[in-house]
Specification:
The protein is an alpha/beta fold. 40% of the residues lie in helices and 11% in strands. Strands 2-1-3-4-5-6 form a 6-stranded parallel β-sheet, with helices on both faces. Helix 5 packs across helix 6. It is globular and about 60 Å long.
Length: 287
């Protein structure tokens, strides 16, 4: 059974578990190799059978067939007031703070619809959203809010995650929204054998929009021995990158640079600090 369980975030709607494995497992091995090259750990071998991929993107597929394309033809006018608009504006503010090419939202007093349009236009020039369409950005917003507001989706995602955990699972590696999934599941299952959690580009520290919608919503420590949180300073999905400020000093926050693709999972996985965190978990399991 798998010693490593990995779980994805947003933007996997039209993929599958085998496709996820084709991308994630080589990148994970790359991180382990880079950690050795940088002297951070001793070599650790990870076979395909050692890694279980938790895939849930299909739960966000729109029903039926759409002739207009894969993603529903959303525009800024489809951004709903409340969590969707709040998250969009938070992304805009964070992008402006880290990317000089993004205009600041400060001082704007526009109505909700106009504000959403201004935010989408501003984010179109950010390095995070390079090559990302307006409709896809809004589709992402709706996925994040659907996890917190649609009980059927939340339960379905959690069921997929729970099915991947076995008696051999030592470490969970979770990206983006997947870190929310992993956190909630690990808090709910103290009987699981998982000792290590590695979060990548995690929004778990974002107040109100994420933190106060979690179950539990109090910044509780999950049922693991070690938690390593890896973040790119330009990844504004992780609006509050230092998770130790919320979950306590036991969290090891590590900042890396992913270049122009700050939120890209393969860049996170292949980073030496990620590899070192996974290797530590597996080596501790052998001792």
């Amino acid at each position: 059974m798998a010693r490593v369980v990995v779980v994805h975030g947003i933007n996997n709607t039209y993929a599958s578990r085998p496709q996820m494995a084709e991308r994630w497992i080589p990148a994970l091995r790359g991180g382990l190799d880079n950690a050795v090259l940088e002297g951070l750990t001793t070599p650790v071998e990870v076979a395909d059978a050692d890694v279980e991929c938790v895939f849930y993107g299909d739960l966000f597929r729109p029903a039926g067939r759409r002739l207009s394309g894969d993603v529903p033809p959303f525009t800024a006018d489809d951004v709903a007031e409340g969590p969707e608009l709040d998250l969009l504006l938070a992304w805009w503010a964070a992008a402006a703070a880290s990317d000089p090419g993004v205009p600041s939202p400060d001082g704007r007093t526009l109505g909700p619809g106009a504000t959403a349009r201004a935010a989408v236009l501003a984010l179109a020039g950010s390095r995070f959203l390079a090559r990302i369409s307006e409709r896809l950005l809004i589709f992402w917003l709706k996925q994040v809010t659907a996890y917190f507001t649609d009980p059927a989706i939340r339960a379905g995602v959690q069921d997929r995650f729970a099915a991947a955990i076995s008696g051999d699972t030592q470490v969970v590696v979770a990206h983006s929204l997947g870190s929310v999934v992993a956190y909630e599941a690990l808090c709910a299952h103290p009987e699981w054998p998982v000792t290590d959690l590695v979060t990548l580009g995690s929004p778990l520290g974002v107040p109100h929009l994420v933190l106060h919608r979690l179950v539990p919503p109090t910044g509780e420590w999950p049922n693991v021995t070690r938690w390593v949180n890896v973040t790119d300073s330009g990844d504004f999905v992780a609006l509050r990158p230092k998770l130790r400020d919320v979950y306590g000093e036991r969290v090891a926050d590590i900042e890396i640079s992913n270049g122009m693709s700050a939120h890209e999972v393969e860049r996170y996985l292949s980073a030496a600090p990620t590899g070192a965190a996974v290797a530590e978990a597996l080596l501790n399991g052998q001792s």
